[in-house]
Amino acid sequence: MKELTISLNTGSDIPMYGQIYTYIKEEIRKGRIRNGEQLPSARALSRHLSVSRSTVDMAYLQLQSEGYIDSLPRKGYYVSDINLLHGLHDALPGNLFEEKPIRSEAGIDFSPRGIDLSYFPFNAWRKISKNILSADNPELFKTGNPKGDRAFRQTIARYLFEARGVRTEADRIILGAGNEYLLLLLNQILGGERNIAMENPTYTQAYRVFLSLGQKIVPVDMDGQGINIRELAGTMADTVYVMPSHHYPMGIVMPIGRRLELLKWSAGHPDRYIIEDDYDSEFRYKGKPIPALKSLDEKDSVIYIGTFSKSISPALRMSYMVLPARLMKIYQKKLSFYSSSVSSMDQAIVNEFITGGQFERHLNRMRSIYKNKHDLLANELKKINRPVRILGENSGLHILLETDSELNEECIMDMLLKEGVRIYGLSEYYIRPPAQPYKSAFILGYANLTDKQILKGVSEIKKVLEAVR
């Protein structure tokens, strides 16, 4: 087991867990901590560095969520083979399928994937875990139901009704280790080659999954209300993948009228399906929450996918899918022999976390924290002394900053990176150039940043954008 001696800067803007995370990540990427090597336990490392246990827990949780380390029950943390993270992408075509070069480290990273782990209720989580283990329940160590524990699926069904307006039964829900796994499973359920329409720009992870499966991708441009239904109707698409609650990366919330148009499209043929990725639906800062598209689904043609990655932690690798009745019959007939990809232990913990009320309290707390960060970022961006437009500012964990001209996104990003600030260009998310010319725009995630980092980061963005003409 490798001993880690990390020089921590107590005066840095980067929190302690962030410094530990960055150090270990760089050691792994540079090969100084090798594939398969065991890391110190969180307790041992916290003692060694004279920091709290929760600080190390947060660092390990972030490393695990990004695939740098794995947690083995009763054994500890081990370094993953990071070469495997990129091996599949090298063999397949498509601009969006290519991994972008890893840029040098930035002190302030407006990553849209981050969450704020400093408020995670570690004590409650640890207590639930201990209580479940002390019960000596042998069922937790069995393979379990392929679709997931029934009691947990009932809990999810209740949550979907109360929070998203979705009426469903536990028997229509399948748990999976992340959205990508569920899309792989769905591909087998649907069977054969399909024409899958995707919003342009789109969520690249889903695009890569469909591309790797040999599906035909049909890009459909967006307008201010979401996917262009007229353009969709003119294609041969039989399936459409949408993110109506908070589109990534555009931040658009699809209004009720457009949702009804989309449902009307799916009703036009019995073999048409809508895949609803309910991305970021938990976080809305203005107006009343809009129910999920699935809640309006009278024809039972919407496949609903949700996740706990933003509301709890991406390290859980826990998502769920609600299938139309006819597709569930196919699953039961052809694929029910698959073992569940989510551990029974994790299911039991999250189930208790929800039913015991801790999930709702945590979610309410994070909504308030994220709203404060969101408002700070939006207000500071409005001070930029050149025409810019802020999009998608009513919900989610990122904002889209559109400039007044066709600035070179790569150039702007490189200039900011030299100042220690990383932002993300919108052009990387387009499957093809849109029919209408688009202005340069940048995705700014804020969940994992402190107020001080947001202020410093926007100050640098302001300097660069005001200097470039």
TrEMBL record:
- On the tree of life, the source organism's domain of life is Bacteria
What family does this chain come from, according to its entry?
A: In the C-terminal section; belongs to the class-I pyridoxal-phosphate-dependent aminotransferase family.
Q: Which residues form a coiled coil?
A: none
Q: List the Gene Ontology MF annotations in alphabetical order.
A: DNA binding; DNA-binding transcription factor activity; pyridoxal phosphate binding; transaminase activity
* CDD domains for the chain: AAT_like, WHTH_GntR
Q: Which segments cross the bilayer?
A: none
KW Transferase (keyword) present: yes
Q: Which UniProt keywords apply?
A: Aminotransferase, DNA-binding, Pyridoxal phosphate, Transcription, Transcription regulation, Transferase
Q: What is this protein called?
A: GntR family transcriptional regulator / MocR family aminotransferase
Which segments constitute the HTH gntR-type domain? 14-82
